[in-house]
Amino acid sequence: MSGPVERVFDAAADAAPEIRGGLPERRAKAESENESGEVQLEADVWADDLLFDRIADIEGVNWYASEEREDVLTVGDADDGYAVALDPLDGSSNVKSNNPCGTVVGVYDQPLPAPGSSLVAAGFVLYGPTTTMVVARDGEATEYLVEADGRTDLGPVELPEEPTVYGFGGRVPDWTEAFEAFVRDVEDDLKLRYGGAMIADVNQVLVYGGAFGYPGLRSAPEGKLRAHFESMPVAYVVECAGGASSDGSGSLLDLDPDSVHERTPTFVGHRSVMDDLEAALSD
Ligand code: AHG
Ligand code: MN
Ligand code: MN
């Protein structure tokens, strides 16, 4: 028996080979901006439409929201269904340079905007040298290999014991003094690996251990990443994989955003690094 939540991830896995296959011919810019004021690639809009077609019809899914759409769409008629929030193509600026990108999926059991505590499952697809999907639910995260004829269970995902890599976004002169001081300590122990696609950077934290983050900047105190579509879903995945998350003062899953496109400083990874971050930012 598969319920609506399983069917959402089945739909994302089914769409993945098609999304990957459609990227080579969609490297141009579309003539539009998204709600966050960013120029959309044709690939962003196309991936959003494709996922909407696959997910909106699932019984039990009542609301569909995406980084690429202004409003939350009501797609079901039950009052107590799930809300699916998507970043259809994360790291889409990597399409042009042929670097990895991803799809992020959050399933909330409340209408949006909704608190992080209402996430019942989250996951992502990573379009890298292979296509993989990580799905987190009920305190566990599982990785799958995604191919045209279906997905193969690769087993549980757990952060390794020791942190190894880090990657933090934003221009260094735009970082706050406290954050820069924290990073100077991190780089004594960990190795920089930053690729410009949150999903790829988070996945290497899951595999090698460490931390990924996009801080609040002097020019943009809330940073760049969007709570419903990016930050809270990856926090859910990383916490299920034995790691931690932070907005600089506490878990991202404790957030209760006021609007659907709200941004937040975003950090995920080893508990020890999150603790050091929170200590540094509270000074
Ligand atoms: P998106 O392509 O969905 O807008 O997300 C881009 C995000 C995220 O993937 C990444 O961590 C960050 O933007 C990279 O930003 P910079 O190019 O500023 O490093
Ligand atoms: Mn993104
Ligand atoms: Mn995106």
TrEMBL record:
Q: Does the keyword Aminoacyl-tRNA synthetase apply?
A: no
Instruction: Summarize where substrate binds, as residue positions.
Output: 90-93, 194, 224
Q: Where is the Fructose-1-6-bisphosphatase class 1 C-terminal domain?
A: 159-281
Sorted keywords for this record are:
Carbohydrate metabolism, Cytoplasm, Hydrolase, Magnesium, Metal-binding
Q: Where does Mg(2+) 1 bind?
A: 67, 87, 89
Pathway terms, separated by semicolons: Carbohydrate biosynthesis
Which cofactors does the annotated protein need, by name?
A: Mg(2+)
- Name the source's superkingdom: Archaea
The residues that hold Mg(2+) 2 are 87, 90, 230
Query: Would you kindly state one Gene Ontology biological process term found in this protein's UniProt entry?
Result: gluconeogenesis
Question: Can you give the residue ranges of the Fructose-1-6-bisphosphatase class I N-terminal domain?
Answer: 29-146
Tell me the protein family, please: Belongs to the FBPase class 1 family.
Question: What protein am I looking at?
Answer: Fructose-1,6-bisphosphatase class 1
Q: Which organism is it from?
A: Halobacterium litoreum
Taxonomic placement: Archaea, Methanobacteriati, Methanobacteriota, Stenosarchaea group, Halobacteria
